[in-house]
Amino acid sequence: MDEKETWGKPVERRGRLTAVLALATLISAFGSSFQYGYNVAVINSPAPFMQQFYNTTYVERYGQPMEENFLTLLWSLSVSMYPLGGFFGSLMVAPLVNKLGRKGTLLFNNVFSIVPAVMMGVSEIAKSYEIVIVARFIVGICAGLSSNVVPMYLGELAPKNLRGALGIIPQLFITIGILCAQVLGIRHILGNSTGWTLMLGLTGIPAVLELLLLPFFPESPRYMLIQRGDEETAQRALQRLRGWEDVEEELSEMRLEDQSEKAEGRLSVLNLLSQPSLRWQLVSIVVMNMGQQLSGVNAIYYYADSIYASAGVKQNDIQYVTVGTGAVNVFMTIAAVFIVEASGRRLLLLIGFGICCTACVLLTAALSLQNSVFWMPYISIICVIIYVVGHAIGPSPIPYVVTTEMFRQSARPAAFMVAGSVHWLSNFTVGLVFPFMERGLGPYSFIIFSIICLLTLVYIWLVVPETKSKTFLEICQMFASRNNVEIKLGNRPVCSEERGELG
């Protein structure tokens, strides 16, 4: 890179959404991210019929009904095995993406979807509730891998001016998966005693489509050049993705990143934790992923049915209101795709956590006064919708985008492994702890969530910089002064003007 390019910042060619890039994005997001969302919500609606199946199976085996406590334990396992599997899937991210590549890992990951889909589909015929519980763990592994690998893959395929928008697509497909599960879970469709096994088994269809179609699309050019040293394949992949022949500028930027990383080598999680140059990036992704899950989003969904019931929504109509809430989630995530490059990542995070914090405080007040003020239940419903809107534009999608952007090639797999582990452990913790919080604190549980939202917001305001339209190396330079290190470009250190300023 010559002096003019480094200091003058000439007008550069902006990447565009080519057919190859668009199709690779849609296929990987539908084949992997969609399943994450689908399996989050798929057992909510048919829960009574699945529990009835558990009890009937037990009676056929042992000649007596299952004790209520044992049924509760089995159902808790059916629910919690999914985030537990997600945690173990996250631990597999770094070794798999380094060995198989990003696309290769997504193709391999379909094993963890197709096998449990078949298991859940035949569970009633096999008269085994154990199959359902084991299958939920295996499909959780699939979700743990896909939730980390898809954003990494798309972040490395995308030109920097589209990286934010394409980075939100996986979260969009997660919300679409949740909505599809809610729609299919309507009693008249599949959320009934005869349709629930088919509903659980449908998760294998996106996996089969991905397995058939994704091989025709490129592997990450950054992976091929920086980690595999295959510049020719990286160049061909870039030419297909960008839709033009001259990709030398991007290749030069990758070579520069490769040179600056040569001394570090590929980082394991332990290396990552001990790297001074990555200290604040690592703290930031831990805080954002904890904030995302501990902000109460799963508790809001858990509480939603009782809020709707108390507002006078008929029991049979609650499922339709829930679908409406899911549709709002999808719509707002679509909005985030279109505004993230204009507004930036940091602003969306601040606004999103701010809305969630306010909604939790108002929801606490509304739930507390619900029985004494006749119109207060409707305020509760509005608070739930406002919370969903806030979470959908910032806390839900942006941490994945920022995790991709804050780390260079050698550190990114280990970073996603840490971020994913924190994400799924926090998810598991909320699922485990919230029922006890609800029993002990009632509506005041949401004050705790509002405090977590506020603390996350303050951290982002003080520490997290804006990363839109920056190269991966430029973002590392932005953190250099806070980490008190020098990042080298080739053989020369980066000066303070090149580092930029932290937000």
TrEMBL record:
Catalytic activity entry: D-fructose(out) = D-fructose(in)
Domain of life: Eukaryota
One GO term of the biological process aspect: D-glucose import
Transmembrane segments: 73-94, 106-125, 131-154, 166-190, 196-217, 282-303, 318-340, 347-369, 375-393, 414-437, 443-464
A single MF term (Gene Ontology): D-glucose transmembrane transporter activity
Topological relation to the membrane, as annotated: Multi-pass membrane protein
Subcellular location: Cell membrane, Sarcolemma; Cell membrane
Domain Major facilitator superfamily (MFS) profile: from-to ranges: 25-468
Keywords: Cell membrane, Membrane, Sugar transport, Transmembrane, Transmembrane helix, Transport
Pfam family membership, one: Sugar_tr
Primary subcellular site in the record, as a coarse category: membrane
Keyword Repeat (UniProt): no
GO cellular component labels: sarcolemma
Family of this protein: Belongs to the major facilitator superfamily. Sugar transporter (TC 2.A.1.1) family. Glucose transporter subfamily.
Cross-referenced PANTHER family: SOLUTE CARRIER FAMILY 2, SOLUTE CARRIER FAMILY 2, FACILITATED GLUCOSE TRANSPORTER MEMBER 5
Name this polypeptide is given: Solute carrier family 2, facilitated glucose transporter member 5
Organism ancestry: Eukaryota, Metazoa, Chordata, Craniata, Vertebrata
